[in-house]
Give the backbone structure.
Amino acid sequence: MKDLLYLTRFLRPHRTAVIIGVVLMIAAGALMPMALARIKDVVNGIFPESVPEEQVVGTPLEELPEEEIQRRTMQAAIILFCFLVAAALADGLAVYAAEYLGQHLLYELRKELFEHLQGLSMSFYDRHRLGELISRVNNDTMILQRTMGPRIMHLVSAPIATVVGVWEMWNASSYLTLSLIIILPLVAGITVVLGRRVRTLSRKVQERLGDMTTSLHEGLAAIRVIKIFSIQRQVKERFDRDNDAVMRTEMKTALMRAINSPLVGIAGGLGIVAILVLGGRLIAEGRMSGGDLFAIIVLMQAVATQVNRLSRLNLALQQASAAATRQRELLEMEDRLPIVEKPVKLEHVEGRITFEDVYFSYTGRSPALCDIDLDIQPGEIVAFAGPSGAGKTTIANLIPRLYDPTRGTVRIDGVDLRQTDPHQIRRHMSIVPQETLLFGGTVRENILYGRPGATDEEVIEAARAANAHDFIVALPDGYDTQVGERGTQLSGGQRQRVAIARAVLRDPRIMILDEATSSLDNESEQAIHHALSRILEGRTAIIIAHRLSTIRDADRIIVLDHGRIVETGSHDELMACDGLYARLYRAHQSQRSDQRVNSEGQTAPND
């Protein structure tokens, strides 16, 4: 339960509401058994002959005029009604207070979880499945949500109601109350044993849900590949296995809950039978009034209801505790890029990038970069070429400090990136990634992510620079057209041009283009490169491209192979060396020639 208590820290901003809520919950728990205890006065007024002589204060009821007996009975009934009204009002207010506190706790929890995940390093995401993280934020929070609300109220009100109910029973008959105490250890034992089992099963359910969410996410995110390769059956079988595992574990948990209620109910039933038998004997012996017995029976039923509620609440809390444990584990993961206590702030960036003896390895993999020494001057356009897996994208990831090098130093304007605040240094950079991603919303909103607060004129100017304005105004709603989830309403080339406009709007000193024109046709590619020649003027540019024809005009081309720099120079210099770059370039030109022939409708050469 300590993990549930840990989550109560999210209620600190609502201390006043917590105090008011707890007071209302205590009142709701205490008033109902106090009201039920007043039943004995009404019953004794209806059956005055059942009141033992030792309980009579003043004139016995049966000796009073009938009008006086009716008046006292009505007075007792009014008092009972007032208690019931007060209990009902307190209960309603307590339910609302509990809902208020529960929903605000969940709001603060979800908010902190999302902010925490946003702050974790890219290395963390390399090691964890996205579906598992979504499950922790979504499914685990849903478990907590089912426990919040009225159940929070019962956590306070049910113990109070039980204690007050037992106290009122004791006032009515200590003998009968003592005879029922033997039942409590039985109920407590059932609750503890089943609760531990439910906690273990709940943890397994959350793990299985994580697996199922991962299967679901992959099955939908990769739907195009799944259809192309016709692997729907294999993907379905995997999801079915994970879904079946969730169902089976949930049914085991349901069995524990199903066992709990009848066992506690049977124990309560034994208590009521015992009261009737022993109470009837006490009335026959003149040691108890009929009103006292009736009140004890009603109170016993109310106490049994509260005990049964506490037992079910314990099972729900065990489930919630398992979910809270997973949430706490996630919140306590501190896999972040280290930030020095007093980071260097670069208010103005010239754009010089320096790699000094840089090595880098992704977790559990062979080195992606080895012995990289490189000095890129402000305003220089540097292209990186090489076969797939050579380390080009890794270079692009180190410059905005998405990762820290395993060894060596990356500097911006002579300052070690480890001595800077990543958020501050990234304000001077823009990147167009290899996998273009747009957010759900309008075209305008996606471009504005580059610089929130930019004017419409600035947005349009950025779109023109990216050669995107013409196709945007041709869309049904122009700049206010919805792009769909991940930009699916736009073509690949259109998405890429919107991403370039977003990068341009930021007006960065350092521009990183990672395969920025890979999804464009030749005509659009040429238009983009004409635009980029203006966009990149005066900026430091890092260009990564498989289409080597697009980097011919770069100031310098760095050729990577197996994570090492193997060639450096201009396009003409590298072609004259007849090394790796020249072979890659000729292969690329041959491929473009084949594609051109195919596009003209001629027979493609045999593979």
User: Anything to note?
Assistant: The beta strands are 353-360, 369-376, 381-385, 407-412, 415-416, 429-432, 510-514, 540-544, 556-561, 564-569.
